[in-house]
Amino acid sequence: MSHPFGTAVAALLFAALATATAVPGAVAVAGSVPADAVDSHGAPEATTPDGANATLETNRGGEVTLKNGPRQTIGGETNVAPGTNLTVHVRKDTENVAFDVSVREDGTFAVTTDAFADEGSGLRFTAWVSRNGTRISPRYDGMMLTYDPGSVTFADQRVESPGRTVVVDSVVLSDGGFVSVRQGSANGSVLGASDYLRAGAHENVSVDFDRPVRGNETLVAVLHRDSDGDERWDSPERDRPIPVDGSTIYDAATVAGQTPTPTLTPATDTVATQTPAPTPSPTPTTADAPAATESPSPSTETIGTAERTQPSATTGSGPGFGVAVGLLAVLATALLTASRRD
Fold first, then answer.
1. Residue 330 dihedral angles phi and psi, to the nearest 5°
2. Are residues 123 and 68 part of one domain?
């Protein structure tokens, strides 16, 4: 026979136990999930003794998305202390890829990787975060999207004075980067690079040069990734061109610079200096000697009985003394003749 008091006590204890199991926050029976421990995907929230948790960045549908290209980033936020090491897991098929990250001062974390460059579009995966081997985030569904590295359009143009800036018509980048302008080809010398361009589409991107464009030049616009993530152009060796099937993404244009105005040099009239012809030396002429005057042959003239020899006349070049002597001779002859007549 049972004791009435004992029966009452047993009933009270049973009621108390039933009430305790309905108290919020009570330890769940193995295999059950408390209603407040379910994430937005319906997956169990991770629980740790210190309440550590983390979330990953997702699209509007709550999925983690990656692209099958280089430099893909996966990250999120956490409430653990800055500097804490975490592990981001991406499980595809039976393969689990893990990345170690460190929590930043603002509570964010991220990892950038090329590990998915060869994956096919549409691949499904699962992602989560752990600390020291314990999961502290929900398990997220994820999908691999097609990687579009970008595009660039560079049209022919004429630059304005002083000719040190060109305009790239459009730039589309899947990840942040730059557009450089090179001389002659996609491997030519870099003349200048743009400021940092965030992922997305950009129009009328200016690129400044250190030298002016000379005449008509073939210039090439090339897309670059921000390889070191500092959002600052360093060099083509550090911020490398974006590769596509072993090539780069570029577009070429003919750019007309300012035609330099030629400097006019005053013309100098050249007057030929004429060298005077040498004055010919007069040829010495020999003066013809005056022709000699023939002297009449002396004649013998007989006057009366006396015979006298006529004197010879002098030449024209002789002195006048000969003429006077001749006159005297004539006069003497006349006198002699007159005296004989007497």
1. -65, -45
2. yes
From first to last of the 342 residues of the chain, give the pLDDT tens digit. 445 545 544 554 444 444 433 333 332 222 223 333 444 444 445 557 789 999 999 999 999 999 888 878 999 999 999 999 999 999 988 899 999 999 999 999 999 998 998 888 899 999 999 999 999 999 999 999 988 889 999 999 999 888 899 999 999 998 889 999 999 999 999 999 999 999 899 999 999 998 999 889 999 999 999 988 899 999 999 999 988 777 899 999 999 987 666 666 665 555 555 555 565 555 555 445 445 445 444 444 444 444 444 544 444 445 555 556 566 666 667 666 666 555
- What string of DSSP letters covers 184-230? SSTTS-EEEEPPPB-SEEEEEEEEE-SS--BSEEEEEEEEEE-TTSS
Last residue of a domain, one of 110, 145, 180: 145
**Total domain count for the chain?**
2
